Amino acid sequence: MAQIEHLDQIAAEEIPKVEMSISELEAKEDFRKHLETIMQKAFARDYSGDIATISLVGFGSLASGFGMTGSDMDLAVVPEWKDPTRASEITIDRGIPRLLERAVLDARLGGRLLTRTRVPILKICQTPTETLYRALAEERQKWDELPEKEKYPSDLPQEPVQPPKPLVDVDGSKAPDLAAQADSPSFGDDFPKLGVSATTRKRQKAPTKIEAPQENSSVLATKSEETISNGSDDKAKKDQHHRPEKQWTREKVVGPLDFPKTGCGIQCDINFENPLGIHNTHMLRCYSLTDPRVRPIVLFVKSWAKRRKVNSAYSGTLSSYGWVLMVLHYLVNIAQPPVCPNLQLSTPLPDDAEALEQFLKRTTIAGYEVRFWRNEEDIIQAAQAGRLSRNTHSIGTLLRGFFQYYASLSGYGYGPKPPQFYWTNEVISLRTPGGILSKQSKGWVSATTKITAEKKVTNRYLFAIEDPFEIDHNVARTVTHRGIVAIRDEFRRAWRILKAIGQGTEPEGGIFDEVVEQLPAPKPEEIQKAL
Length: 531
Fold this sequence. Notes:
The protein is of the alpha+beta class and 531 residues long. The protein has helices at 2-18, 22-46, 61-64, 96-106, 130-144, 148-151, 178-181, 187-190, 194-197, 217-230, 233-242, 275-290, 294-307, 320-334, 353-362, 376-384, 395-407, 439-442, 481-500, 524-530, and strands at 51-59, 73-81, 110-114, 121-125, 162-166, 169-170, 173-174, 199-201, 267-271, 364-365, 368-369, 426-429, 436-438, 446-451, 456-459, 465-466, 514-516.
């Protein structure tokens, strides 16, 4: 089939480009050790509490085997308690993140502690420019000069949790009819077509040619979304008289404290009080061992999402972790026969009661069950013996099914209807037999906002992916209305391109063409605010 051959060819070309080299892995491991030494020395010198020392443990894409060239490192601070009976505790002293930020800056590395995230994150870069380093050092100096009571505002709610918003009324983008329309037969025709609303750079070896947009891509995206939300352009124009539209881009505009994508060496995010991240990573690694097709398919999808600029939780689209879960859901639950077993439903249990009791204690972390088949040697042996899957499809065949499933288009005519994901109503749940729960069953039907003295956390459920262990956490909670429009549009664009192959029609572009955005210059008041 021409479509499958096309995807197999693209995979053969693109996957080697994004695979991380051994030398890059080694360089990042050296930097991890360097950071760990810096932090352990600062900890020994400046900390006198209940923790003897700390270590930096890798998790995320580099540790799972799904890392791409240039990927940031994800590291978790793991405490070693002076009292061994406290080994299972995860809460650390509130001053430790700032202590480590200071140590990083003193070592002339770039360091910035983000406290308004769901969990604190210390962002680090290896070789900041002088301008960036000065801005980061000045930001830290401002914090040092705060009165003590303002340095660590209470995490207790300062305002009541805001009443739930309708699912599609998030960030000022009201779409009262979207929930009803999203999975109806007519929704596919009304959904904005990215081939019109975004500029693309075609994938080619010759000097790149940028296609001229008919209008500014952000303006078109806004018009399309308002059309979906309100049913007509006239209504959209009316709404614009009442409130000005913010220009939205898929790629976050870099501010004076943000690290650029390139030019500042290795970058990493250090997490605090996030033990589940290490276990999530181990499970993803085990999934990568169940079948040799898993890793290349994940790398293909991650690379595609990056080129189409729908892979940033900071910009309102989806994190890399979310994309991996989407792929695994398809391979475990939708592909027939399944490509992978469900590792959370395949856990070998001890035979005797005492061993079982100890097993259950060891596999409960912070109140969450983290049980899965984690013996890597056993998984490899079972995979090599052909005991884990009877699926023999090519990578191209599986990718075609992946894009078709998430494109969720109706109108297939006669014959059996292929499976499709219902974005409005369904939750991806990797731990669940079949892989799907309803938003209603989880109570994920309205956006909620929790405001404390230190941060504002909004939980959105426009797109819902249940964390495999922390089951009350929506991995896609950062996806905004505009973000989900972009993600769904990308699946439909990819499917339109695939469908055109072999039909004698000209496709609207290449699947791996890069989205090109005209990023707005930051306003003076925004720069001042960031500083």
